[in-house]
């Protein structure tokens, strides 16, 4: 059973990643990926659709360098072309995010935004959050040196709950030289359905957190390897100084 939220969660809502520990990267002109697409009025998909070289490599086109100009369809992160969603309070799993429109398989749902921090800072924060008794995981892997922390600042994507049989997945895209994380639909999602993705992490705290996703193949606890444990999961060791 779902109910409308009666009180706003305590966090700072942001629409783009917050770079507090370093400057935003400046894209060098020689590094800009330029596709070969040419817009054809009789074939709308020609404007940087599935056949676009950049799309095939999860790279968004750079405005001013794409021949399709304003018709380019490969700037979804830059234009915040999200699906409509709605925040709700769930019965047993805290806050959740529902589809507020019919979402098609492969559709870009929302960007996972937060504070871009170093691995060293992520390690420090994760320990602090654990000491504070926080069981929700809002720090996700971004690349070999950085993570995104949406605990204090984030987009609505932070409210998407875990499921061992999710209807969404995370994908990394390169946008204007920066790696960004988007939530994409794995299947058609009817309006009113709660969104979910597999967190793909291994619990490194003291007490394991019971999974309440309710999926038929639920592993029982967040972080159990029976479902979704991937090589992209990273655990910090005590001597890891990144």
From TrEMBL:
Q: Where is the SET domain?
A: 83-200
Q: Name one GO cellular component term.
A: nucleus
- State whether keyword Methyltransferase applies: yes
Tell me the PROSITE patterns matching this sequence: AWS, POST_SET, SET
Record keywords = Chromosome, Methyltransferase, Nucleus, S-adenosyl-L-methionine, Transferase
Main localization (coarse): nucleus
Q: Which residues cross the membrane?
A: none
- BP-aspect Gene Ontology terms: methylation
Record-annotated AWS domain positions: 30-81
Q: Where in the cell is it found?
A: Chromosome; Nucleus
Among InterPro entries, the record links this protein to: AWS_dom (IPR006560), Post-SET_dom (IPR003616), SET2_Histone-Lys_MeTrsfase (IPR050777), SET_dom (IPR001214), SET_dom_sf (IPR046341)
Q: Does the keyword Signal apply?
A: no
Which GO terms of the molecular function aspect are on file? histone methyltransferase activity
**Post-SET domain residues:** 207-223
Please identify the protein, giving its name as recorded.
Histone-lysine N-methyltransferase
Q: Organism source for this protein? A: Aegilops tauschii subsp. strangulata
